[in-house]
Specification:
Blueprint: H1 3-7, H2 16-41, H3 56-61, H4 66-86, H5 88-109, H6 113-144
Helix pairs in contact: 2-4, 2-6, 4-5, 5-6
């Protein structure tokens, strides 16, 4: 009998497939909701003044107003959230790449480096984990239905 089984009887431990499933589901919900909420907020600025985080170089590359640029960003974020809901593996990769892109523009600008680091951690610790965990969650669901 393994040490963990002698301390915790197997009947009290959650089945591995349940842990995988609930972890993946939690990440899926988070990475669906947060990009959609952040995307919608690009049109209202209730949570933040998003233009504050916009590197002026971006407006030289895409010659539109800051408000228009953030509106485009908002639409992309809403689409990314929907993609996570429909196809979490692909959506997780898209959100991870999006967060890394946001981080890179902040790092190149040399401002809001704390936000850049936070977004890198969220991308690698959350969105990428969702993408990598999704196939295992699907397999675990098949196994648990047997």
């Amino acid at each position: 009998m393994a040490l963990t089984q002698s301390i915790h009887p197997s009947s009290t431990l959650p089945a591995e497939h349940n842990v995988v499933h609930t972890t993946q589901l939690t990440l899926k919900i988070l990475f669906t909701a947060v990009p959609i909420v952040a995307g919608l907020d690009k049109f209202t600025n209730l949570l933040a003044n998003w233009e504050t985080y916009l590197n002026p170089l971006a407006l030289r590359i895409v010659p539109v107003s800051a408000a228009t640029f953030m509106g485009i960003v908002g639409v992309i974020e809403i689409i990314a959230g929907i993609l996570v809901f429909l196809k979490p593996r692909i959506g997780g990769l898209v959100v991870a790449a999006w967060l890394i892109a946001i981080s890179l523009q902040l790092i190149l600008w040399g401002r809001f480096l704390d936000v850049a680091v936070r977004d890198i951690v969220i991308a690698l610790g959350g969105a990428l984990t969702l993408a990598r965990l999704t196939p295992f969650a699907a397999e675990s669901a098949r196994i648990s239905q047997r």
